[in-house]
Fold this sequence. Notes:
CATH superfamily of the largest domain: GAF domain
Structural class: alpha+beta
Number of strands: 11
Order of helices and strands: EHEEEHHHHEHHHHHEEHEHEHEEH
Radius of gyration: 22 Å
Mean pLDDT: 81
Strand order of the largest sheet: 8-7-6-11-10-9
Number of helices: 14
Shape: globular
Distance between the termini: 28 Å
Number of domains: 2
Oligomer: single chain
Largest sheet: 6 strands, antiparallel
Amino acid sequence: MGLVGRLEDLGISDIFQILSIGKKTGTLVINSRKGTTLVGFRDGLVMRAETSVLEKGLPEELAVAGTIKSSTLELARAVQKSLPDKTLPEILLELDAVKKETLEKFARKRIERVICEVIQWAEGDFLFELEEEALNGGAGRMQEFKDFGWKLSKGISPEYLLMEGARVYDESSQGIRPDKGEDFGAGEGGGWDADWSGGEAPRKDISSLKALTQELRFPNSTSEITLLILRFASEIFQRGVLFMAAPEELAGLGQFGLDAENADMKIRDILINLNEGPFLAEVVKQARSFRGPVERDKGTEFLIAEIGGGWPSEAALFPLVAEGRVVALLYCDNPGGQETAHSEGLDIFISHAGLALEKALLQRRLTEIEKKGS
Length: 374
């Protein structure tokens, strides 16, 4: 079953969440006035991506970086005329002009840049086709581009790409330049928060609070709210897990920073019985944030065993309250033993997130009532 619609009705983050949770394989085609973007999925993970908006393709980026010579690129293009079914990166690999590891590295960064571009699109249409052939760069819509990049051997989590892309967009919109390193950096804010920090270097939690609160005012969906929470927390902590909270259990919803294969899928399979986890149950019951040593019980031992690493020296837990009850719980820690940074800004943000969630739920109910009445 495919997926088709307008970006005005279903945002990019929602589309990615649907494809990720459904573990879909195929190609997402997004058209807007800016151009066309293609994203290849396999089992819910992003394997490749390309857009007509960026001037240079992956092969040109390799040449600009000095990884390959311009003459080698021209040779690869000449070979491609005789082998049109092969992409330029595939030809460069067969010519031994570049290592597979290098292609993987450049392709991952290319995908991040593409997603960073496409998350800004609020108008246009999209189509998801369940087709392995398109994912592999064969016939069909892939021919809209001269080259559809390089297919990764190990896909990237859509949630991670959305968080990283939105982070870079936030920084650029504030005039903050992203890191020039290999990964998109988390920039520091300006001097606006001097009153909070006593004239010292801006605190990450306060800088992030200002940057993301505007987005929280008009969320497109509940999934966007959860992504904003994870993005904020990733600025302060090394890793974290967001759970949906029911009266007697916690169910994994999302994560950041986990050093595990298919981390998002792993987290969604986690289910913690609060009857066997009095520590977590008490945090949910009190509906107040907690920061300090984690008490050992069956629930917390199961959680730490699932996310890996030794027992944390301390952790921070943030309940998300909506309509008078805890609907989600965010667990964060620093497995490397690094001291936990200030997190008051995150606490404030999650309080606002609860209000935004109530608003989104109310809007959904009103829409349903209007449909029934029409």
